[in-house]
Amino acid sequence: MSTSARTVRLNSDVSQAVDDIARICGRDANFVMREAIEEYVRHHEWVITETQKRLATLQAGDARLVSHDEVKDSILKRIRQ
């Protein structure tokens, strides 16, 4: 897999946290940032894909929207059981 260099600006707290994590894990900061970005991208790709699937299901008429109150009531009912 090929790689490409990118530049990212981090606030000093986050930058320090990356350095701390890298030191504790015995890795370098590039490794920690690459892993974090890859995880972030995988997560958001999944969210987008699942949202698109759910929207397509809804648009096809194979699902229905439920109100916030319906969801809340359903959760509370399960908790009480």
How far apart lie the N and C ends? 51 Å
Low-confidence stretches: none
How large is the count of helical segments? 3
Q: What is the count of distinct domains?
A: 1
Largest sheet: none
Q: Overall pLDDT, averaged? A: 96
SS content category: mainly alpha
State which percent range the strand residues make up.
Answer: under 5%
Radius of gyration: 21 Å
Overall strand count: 0
| Approximate shape | elongated
Level of helix content? over 70%
Order of helices and strands: HHH
Summarize the structure.
The protein is mostly helical. The chain is 72% helix and 0% strand. It has helices at 12-25, 29-59, 68-80.
What attributes does this structure have?
81 residues; mainly alpha
Describe this structure in words.
With 81 residues, the protein is an all-alpha fold. It has one domain. Helices cover 72% and strands 0% of the residues. The longest helix has 31 residues, at 29-59. The model has no long low-confidence stretch (mean pLDDT 96).
Question: What layout of secondary structure does this protein have?
Answer:
Elements: H1 12-25, H2 29-59, H3 68-80
Helix pairs in contact: 1-2
